[in-house]
Design a protein that fits this description.
heterodimer, A: 444 residues, alpha/beta, Aminopeptidase, Alpha-Beta Plaits, 2 domains, six-stranded mixed sheet, 12 helices, 39% helix, 25% strand, elongated, B: 449 residues, seven-stranded mixed sheet, five-stranded antiparallel sheet, 13 helices, 22% strand
Chain lengths: 444, 449
């Protein structure tokens, strides 16, 4: 029986051998960006790669997800390695799709490369048979919580229930057979170095807001109108007046956009729409801030006598990472990039649906460097593919070895200490409880 | 029997003779400014002047009002009141401001007491008075400026007044029950080339006292435990501005206020913020409509931050209805005194934007509320100064004396004519019922929605 270190060496060597190939996969996806639940080409590419590698898989999960499975030599727990398929919308990004403006401004394309790297590494001769359990190679849709209107229509049409890929996959039972999950995200923050050990992340709810006023000639008869844009702008101001009540350690983020601000400048705007997230470090903090945002929105409506329709959509839950698994990952990271190459991130104020998965099973969501520019900006570029794809793949794959080798003793250590924050059923109940649609009419 | 013109000449001569004395009285009031319902010194001064002239009077009416009566020699008849307002504003930067209270005559009311005394000086000339029927009621009234709402609400709570302005309260007390018509004259600084302006109207209004109740907390250490009442108030003011586009110009809507209490210390989340606010519009109906809108803004401010708000709506003023006959007499006599082209008549719907409780009185009895020149600087500002006391005090005194002669001479034929054509907009009882109905307290908890 090979030692863990021997297995890891073989895995790393195998990944190195296919380094060029997996980088090419990432670059192909970079040039074919697709937003969440629309990752048709990306999904097909993963299916082809899985088929070519002889990986059993199912596809069309949560519309575009692809779930592959490779089995170890004996039974045991299953570890999911996740790669996210979707891009953002950043029309000014150099690799943006000129028609859809979709662009990989968050580096997800690197994740599919690393997913394939993990597959190739673990499938190398004499490795898989030494593992107990299964490795789920999971290409998942729609991590970026965008195009809310589009996705909400998908929801209303019954095509999805939740607007993020992983929550939807949890609902569909596609995580029922997964015991532990991991992934690695790119970062452009220099201080986070080559491989970054990260901590918690904000959770969030999403909101669609519609202010309904009454149109009138803005010059001739403004007194006959009810200005929905004034209601909306007052509501924004009202949100700001609440900011001082947000506690530092709750890291609340409220950042609305106006998606429709009126139709013609000479008409009193009667239909004004906004979207916003309400993010926070824990569920109670999110709910408290969300209540304040609702109040502010209603105040805007009340001030001018408009109506406001507030649709609150469950978003993502805060991320908590499993310390035992992260220790294993860190040891593997140190052996790849040295102590000096390790960066740390305590709490991220963005959100990820890996947070949802983290509520029901042990997960890690570390970061890998190699990117430059601002995340979600037009200058976010993966520059060092060897680091962002190849090194990250090695770090993940060798952590899988730690978990599943030696009769999956590593995974046993993780699961024996772990207590899930909630069951899947509790999770679904919580998420469904967050969904709310309300029409507020101050004149009633 | 003398002709009316002879009577007027005699009255004007008497006023002219004592003009320095009248101007000195006005200047003495200027130097001793007192705000509404606090006009103690001014009230005493008026009483002393009445004593000197042998005029019987009652004082402390609506706290500080002084009401005299001078009977004409021709027996009973209509009573004509000549009104002078006693109160000052609060403009601490005004050159004649009281250094302790900040009170200042930035609206020229001190001139009104001078002109009221001047008018009766002319009318008390024996040859004049003997020819008049009925009586003249010189009336020094308190509190025309609707300010210091908090203080006046305290007076109301002590049941020392019910209404928060002088004439409103005097109407309630029945002090206008025996008055058939009233005239006064206000100074103005925006007269361009004219000496007198007659006609036009003024805004109706309600007054609001708004208390935002939040929750105090250390503003640095634990702002999340506080509810910021100042944010609620500041946001409400923005919300009011957002509504301005819905007010038609024809309603001459004026929405303005001050923050009386804006927090106690900068290091604490303000939990008690209080505003005085004013909702003016051309008609009481528009005031009611716009008042509701403004209440919504204050409630929305409370809702925006989860504070409570208590909105006390206080009955304000009614638009002035200038009686055309009285106004006609004032105009004729003014033209006779200063020349035809120096008197301008405004159309009845011309609204100056401000408000006066002479509007309230005008609902019940015939009044006229013309303006005289003699002042410079923006009204209610530190720059408002009477620069020409002959114009501001002596001329209006002569005109008002002449108007009274026109009304009460010849068996009060003039006054009877005014009364014959008169239709009150409301009776005193209707007026009181209407105003009491406007008094409202609304409480709203923005944390409960």
């Amino acid at each position: 029986m090979a030692s863990k270190e021997e297995l890891k060496r073989k895995v790393r060597d195998a990944i190195d051998q296919r380094a060029e190939e997996i980088v090419r996969v990432s670059k192909t996806i970079l040039d074919n960006p697709e937003t969440g639940f629309r990752e048709v080409k990306t999904s097909r590419l993963v299916r082809d790669l899985f088929a070519e590698a002889g990986i059993d898989h199912r596809s069309g999960l949560a519309l575009t997800g692809v779930k592959g499975e490779i089995k170890g030599g004996s039974n045991g727990p299953s570890v999911a390695v996740i790669g996210e398929l979707d891009s953002l919308i950043v029309s000014e990004h150099p690799h943006a799709n000129p028609e859809t403006a979709a662009a990989h401004a968050c580096g997800h394309h690197a994740q599919i490369g690393m997913l394939m790297g993990v597959a190739y590494g673990l499938m190398s001769p004499e490795v898989l048979e030494e593992l107990s359990g299964r490795v789920i190679l999971f290409a998942v849709p729609a991590e970026e919580y965008i195009e809310i209107e589009y996705r909400d229509e998908l929801r209303r049409a019954g095509k999805v229930e939740f607007l993020g890929g992983k929550p939807e996959l949890i609902r569909l039972g596609e995580f029922d057979d997964v015991d532990l999950a991991m992934m690695c995200h790119t970062t452009s923050v220099a201080e986070e170095k080559k491989l970054c050990i990260s901590g918690t992340n904000n959770g969030m709810v999403a909101k669609r807001i519609q202010f309904i006023g009454r149109a009138a000639h803005a010059g001739g008869a403004p007194h006959l109108g009810v200005n929905a844009l004034n209601a909306a702008s007052l509501a924004l101001m009202a949100i700001h007046t609440n900011r001082e009540t947000f506690k530092d350690d709750n890291t609340i983020r409220v950042h609305p956009i106006i998606t429709k601000g009126g139709e013609a400048v000479n008409a009193v705007p009667a239909d004004v729409r906004m979207e916003t997230f309400v993010r926070g470090a824990n569920i109670d903090a999110i709910l408290d801030a969300n209540r304040k945002v609702d109040r502010a929105l209603k105040a805007g409506a009340m001030a001018v006598g408009a109506q406001v329709k507030i649709t609150t959509i469950p978003g993502y839950l805060p991320l908590k990472q499993n310390a035992t698994m992260m220790e294993m990952y860190k040891a593997n990271a140190v052996s790849l990039v040295g102590e000096d190459g390790i960066g740390y991130r305590k709490h991220g104020t963005g959100s990820t649906d890996m947070g949802d998965v983290s509520q029901i099973m042990p997960v890690i969501h570390p970061y890998v460097g190699g990117a430059t520019g601002l995340g979600h900006g037009n200058d976010y570029m993966v520059k060092d593919y060897n680091l962002a794809v190849v090194t990250a793949a090695k770090a993940l794959a060798t952590t899988v070895v730690d978990l599943l080798a030696d009769g999956a003793s590593g995974a046993g250590e993780v699961t024996s200490k772990y207590r899930a924050a909630m069951t899947k059923d509790q999770y679904l109940k919580l998420m469904r409880g967050l969904a709310k649609e309300e029409l507020y009419d101050p004149t009633e | 029997m003398s002709t009316r013109n002879e009577l007027k000449r005699k009255a004007c001569e008497a006023i002219e003779k004592r003009k320095n004395e009248l101007i000195a009285v006005a200047k003495m009031i200027l130097e001793n400014p007192e705000t509404g319902f606090s006009e103690a010194k001014t009230s005493r001064l008026v009483a002393r002047e009445f004593d000197l002239r042998g005029i019987p009077y009652r004082d402390r009416l609506a706290l500080t009002g002084v009401k005299g009566e001078i009977k004409g020699g021709r027996g009973p008849g209509p009573k004509v009141s000549v009104i002078g307002e006693m109160d000052a504003l609060l403009v601490s930067e005004h050159a004649s401001a009281d250094s302790k209270t900040g009170a200042a005559h930035a609206c020229g009311h001190h001139a009104q007491i001078g002109m009221m005394l001047g008018a009766i000086t002319g009318l008390q000339v024996p040859e004049v008075l003997s020819q008049l029927s009925g009586s003249i009621v010189p009336f020094a009234v308190p509190a025309e400026e609707f300010v210091q709402v908090e203080r006046r609400m305290a007076l109301r709570d002590q049941q020392r007044i019910e209404f928060l302005s002088g004439k409103q309260e005097l109407i309630r007390l029945g002090e206008f029950d025996d008055v058939d018509m009233a005239i006064m004259c206000h100074t103005a600084s925006d007269m361009v080339k004219s000496t007198f302006v007659v006609g036009g109207t003024s805004n109706s209004h309600v007054v609001k006292y708004i208390e935002f109740i939040g929750k105090g907390a250390h503003a640095g250490g634990s702002p999340h435990l506080g509810i910021n009442a100042l944010n609620a108030a500041a946001w409400s003011i923005m919300a009011i501005h957002a509504n301005r586009e819905v007010f038609p110009e024809s309603e001459t809507v004026r929405l303005h206020g001050i923050i009386g209490h804006g927090g106690e210390s900068v290091s604490a989340v303000p939990s008690d913020v209080r505003l005085e606010w004013r909702v003016r519009s051309a008609t009481p109906e528009a005031v009611a409509r716009n008042s509701t809108k403004i209440d919504q803004c204050f409630k929305a401010g409370a809702l925006a931050v989860g504070a409570k708000v208590k909105i006390t709506t206080i009955p304000g003023y009614m638009p002035v209805r200038n009686n055309s006959s009285l106004q006609g007499l004032f105009k004729q006599n003014a033209q006779a005194l200063v020349g035809k082209d120096k008197v301008v008549q405004m159309p009845p719907n011309r609204n100056r934007g401000g408000s006066t409780d002479m509007g309230d009185l005008s609902q019940i009895i015939p009044v006229c509320h013309p303006y005289t020149a003699g002042a410079v600087g923006a009204g209610h500002s530190k720059d408002y100064t009477i620069t020409d006391y002959e114009v501001a005090v002596v001329n209006p005194a002569k005109i008002m004396a002449m108007v009274v002669i026109d009304l009460l001479a010849d068996g009060a034929a003039g006054a009877k004519e005014v009364l014959e054509g008169w239709q009150p907009a409301m009776t005193k009882d209707q007026y009181l019922a209407f105003q009491r109905d406007r008094a409202q307290v609304v409480e709203f908890d923005g944390g409960e929605v």
